[in-house]
Amino acid sequence: METSKTHIVHGGTLRYLRHDSAITGTPMTLSVFTPPGEGPFPVLIWLSGLTCTEDNFTTKAGAYRAAAEHGIIVVAPDTSPRGEGVADDPAYDLGQGAGFYVDANRDPWTPHFRMESYVVEELVGLIDREFPTTGARSISGHSMGGHGALTLALRHPELFRSVSAFAPIASPTRCPWGEKAFTAYLGDDRSEWAKHDAARLIEAGAAAGRYDDILVDQGDADAFLAEQLKPELLTAAAEAAGQKLTLRMQPGYDHSYFFMASFIDDHLAFHAKRLRN
Q1: Which residues neighbour 153 within 8 Å (Cβ) at sequence distance 6 or greater?
Q2: Is 222 among the residues known to form the active site?
Q3: Is 158 exposed, middle or buried (0-12, 13-18, 19+ CB in 10 A)?
Q4: Is 217 a known active-site residue?
């Protein structure tokens, strides 16, 4: 990996990195915070939302003080492949910046849009090889990335000790963002869509015996709450499956990083407890 920038923050080291991905066939960028000390450390992977790069969480979430205190490496990858020859769409909610953490099986997206495999196969191995990790990791994210964190944790529970999300797209098979993206990336077969829908996965028992709790924070003043996010579907699915899920509706908070910065310490503490076990 090539390092483009390095900063010292809260006694730890923040690196902006670039590497050539064998999975996406493109360069991929990410940030990695390592806490002070020699390690080894557990890892939290953060997945960002629509239009974001690796920089949004890195500069806006204010996560590194708590990460340094808990001794957690924090990894924030870009949200999609990018560059010349990579398919795109003029709309903000499809194409570059909108990978939805699935592996596309429809043209023109198939060659590069393989974000699920990138995260669970390439990224986790890359971090374990290049940084002093314990091999224990958790996952979190926001909006589209909250969808990604939940579904990747449910589909690959052997990789993650815990999962949390901020304002996740709870059921992409039942909202305009998800329907648009899944039609483009996965085709018209809704049974394939359901494999990447957190609410439907929980309802089907994918979390059974895997996670003692799933933490979700949602602002009640979020402009996307009713049409796109639908956290009540997560609650209903968890109740049906007997899965503990803590949904915290936060009064007055919107969809922005001001919301995440207000509660990110709680999420790092939530994961730190489970990464130590």
Answers
A1: 139, 159, 160, 162, 163, 211
A2: yes
A3: exposed
A4: no
